[in-house]
Amino acid sequence: MDPIASRLALVTAFAVVYIVWGSTYLAIRVAVQDLPPGLLAGVRFIIAGLVLGALALARGQPLPRAPSDWRTAAIVGVAFIVLGNGVVTWAEQWVPSNQAALIIASGALFTAWFGTFGRRGVPLSTATRLGLLVGLCGTALMVWPQGPVGDAPGGDLFWPKIGIVLSTVAWSWATMYSRNTAVTMKPLMYVACQMLIGGAVLTMIGLLNGELARWTWTLAGIGGLLYLTVFGSCIAYATYMWLINQTTPARLGTIAYVNPAIATVLGWWLLDEQLTRMQLAGMAVIIASVAWVSVSARVIGRR
Predict the structure, then answer these.
(1) In this predicted model, what pLDDT tens digit does every residue of 18-52 receive, in sequence order?
(2) Residue 303: inside a domain, yes or no?
(3) Whole-prediction pTM
């Protein structure tokens, strides 16, 4: 692929992940009011895994035969889907979508840090470190409490927020683990296996917790489920897995900065979630840090 086409592909992929994943926090927040979190996340990824798996088979990509491939798919699937997504879905029963997205912005720092390890480790330049720290300062402005945030398990949303932080660490670690671990299966089948394994685990957790009795067939719930399945999983997740091997960890981490800005605007616009002047200032700082990191992280493409 020539340099111009390669750059265009990268820009397009980042735009897809920025916009779609920025909107999935809103979709989760809406859907989880009617559909229990374990089954919502589990069914979403099982359907997406079946669709992508069928597409992979149609393209001549067989199921993996090597035990190491299944082990890697299971590790990444549990980290990404069960811990990274399932916990966030659970937490958004109480945490507003914009706050959940803002906490996840810390993933940029974790991704860049984990990205310094492994066979494809990329050291952080001083400029990149500065950009990441500036971005976290912008995130702090957006998350800074403006008053009471409501009740939830553990009081004052403490445990749901801790869960989101831990899910962010798991997601960032899995990103770099996947980047540094070779598999023999083709990319589309690799993604499908992750989704099927992670979705099966979440569905089992939901069934064991008695969530089937809480499943309510509503337009908002099913609409959110369909949006998350088609756009959040089939399109954006597969695009993200492609990006892992196409760009640097620092640039990959900028996703965690842009998504919260989009989620905050959508939450304010459609769900009447609070958007303060401080949050607007934080969004401006975040966008500036993304530009800074993009300029400082000069190496593009495969490492």
Answers:
(1) 999 999 999 999 999 999 999 999 999 999 999 99
(2) no
(3) 0.84
Please tell me the total count of domains within the chain. 1
What b/e readout covers 140-176, taking b as 16+ CB neighbours within 10 angstroms?
ebbbeeeeebeebeeeebeebbebbbebbbbbbbbbb
Written as six digits, the tokens of 266 are 């959508």
Residue at 63 is within a domain: yes
Rounded distance between C-alpha atoms, residue 38 and residue 230, angstroms? 18
Residue 291 contacts by C-beta under 8 Å, 6 or more apart in sequence?
A: none
Alpha carbons 15 and 290: distance in angstroms, whole number = 13
Judged by DSSP in three states, 269 sits in helix
**CA–CA gap between residue 169 and residue 173 (Å, rounded):** 6
Given a contact cutoff of 8 angstroms between Cβ atoms, the answer to whether 217 and 156 are in contact is no
Q: What is the pLDDT of residues 128-169, one digit of tens each?
A: 788 878 877 877 776 666 555 555 554 557 788 888 989 999
| Percent of the chain as helix, strand, coil, to the nearest 5 | 75, 0, 25
- Under DSSP, is residue 112 helix (H, G, I), strand (E, B) or coil? helix
Q: Is residue 119, in this structure, part of any structural domain at all?
A: yes
Give me the count of residues in the chain.
Answer: 303
- For the chain, the maximum distance between any two Cα atoms, rounded to a whole number of angstroms, is 55
Residue numbers of the domain that contains 264: 12-296
